[in-house]
Amino acid sequence: QAQFVESGGGLVQPGESLRLSCTLPGGVLRYVNMAWFRQVPGKEREWVAGIGTVFTRGGFATKYATAVKDRITIARDNSKNTIYLEINNLKPEDTARYYCNQVTSLQSMDPNVDRWGQGTQVTVSS
């Protein structure tokens, strides 16, 4: 099956911001819950944000990990078939490879193991 494709990472200094993008070639993302994960060096993947499919009260349902809640915004643009993750005030602790994936629900954050992409590297260093 097709894998997700992430982009937008890079080498940045603390305090800067990045917007990561995610798409699925040949796929339509508007119908699925999506989430961003990150692989911290030496650790297992962890989820950082998720976004649902139902647009209500001016936006989609979202969920954020406590560690990044105040600095991260997840969004989706169905017209572009793209999921975004904006990370503000980047810290060295944010250094990781970031991945997006379909999840069964925002409660479980259970990813589709067949569609992991290559991710995009975010390195925060002065």
Keywords, separated by commas or semicolons:
single chain; about 130 residues; mainly beta; six-stranded mixed β-sheet
Question: How do the strands and helices of this protein lay out in sequence?
Answer:
Blueprint: E1 5-7, E2 10-12, E3 18-23, E4 33-39, E5 45-56, E6 59-64, E7 72-77, E8 82-87, E9 96-103, E10 120-124
Parallel strand pairs: 2-10
Antiparallel strand pairs: 1-3, 3-8, 4-5, 4-9, 5-6, 7-8, 9-10
| Biggest pleated-sheet summary | 6 strands, mixed
- The average pLDDT is 95
**Structural class by secondary-structure content:** mainly beta
Query: Which spans have pLDDT < 50 for at least 5 consecutive residues?
Result: none
* Helix/strand order: EEEEEEEEEE
Dominant shape: globular
Helicity, in percent? under 10%
Q: Quaternary arrangement of the chains shown?
A: single chain
- DSSP strand (E) fraction? over 45%
The spatial strand order of the largest sheet comes to: 2-10-9-4-5-6
Please, how many helices? 0
| CA radius of gyration | 14 Å
Could you tell me the number of beta strands?
A: 10
- The CA-CA distance between the termini, in Å, is 39 Å
How does this structure look, described?
The chain has 126 residues and is mainly beta. The chain has no helices and ten strands. The protein has strands at residues 5-7, 10-12, 18-23, 33-39, 45-56, 59-64, 72-77, 82-87, 96-103, 120-124. The strands form two sheets. The protein has a six-stranded mixed beta sheet, with no helix packed on it. The protein has a four-stranded antiparallel beta sheet with strand order 1-3-8-7, with no helix packed on it. It is globular, with a radius of gyration of 14 Å. The N and C termini lie far apart (39 Å).
